[in-house]
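sorry for the late reply, my laptop died twice this morning and i had to redo everyting from scratch. anyway the thing you sent over, i finally got around to it. pasting the sequence first so we're on the same page, its 217 residues, then the predicted structure underneath. double check i copied it right bc i was rushing
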Amino acid sequence: MEHGPNHVGLIPDGLRRWAKAHDTTLADAYLRGAHQVVDILKNLQGHGVRTVTVYNLSRANLGRTVDELDAVYQASMQFLTTLIPAAFDATICSVRLHGDRKALPDNYVAAAGDLEVAMTGTEFRINVLAAYDAYDELRDAHQRAQQTGSDIASTFEIGDVDLVIRTTAEPLLSGFLPLQSQYAQLYFLTTPLNDLTMDDVDQLIARYRGVPQLRGR
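ok and here's the structure:
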């Protein structure tokens, strides 16, 4: 029986479909999703997961409609300013924003920066990907490697992912940490984010632990 995972990637998805199916607004769907992500984070922390990387927005997502982006940003602000600080001990948990900060609203960047300063724990890390693009990440890592004379693999700020959970049946990573997810188990769910239960998450962790983690060996 394998232990872990140490690092889980979470791709919250299906919120537009959920809003349509439940005849509600995008703002309501995304806010419910923010609460749901916090519940999942707490659950994973309880399972001994050390790092969770949450895919908030890819750079490509920035091309969506203004109404949808507004809904995402409103929910994200609630997530950053209220939900995370209330749910996690700042001496245990840390938060880090990864992505092109210049492409994000100033209040979003400021809220993330406040969390980065306030939450300094080392036991549980939450990475938030926003305006993220894997090519940007690779270029940044290459520049750091050149500056320090290091191997490029050692200059990535996010480590290898063990398990990726996407709350949609579409078997796509959509640019989520492609290098770090080379040997991750990938779970694509038919249950949308807002309908996912913590029992579902427990079962995914148990499923992961029941599979030998060979990583190419």
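The chain is about 40% helix and 15% strand.
thats about all i looked at so far, will dig more tmrw
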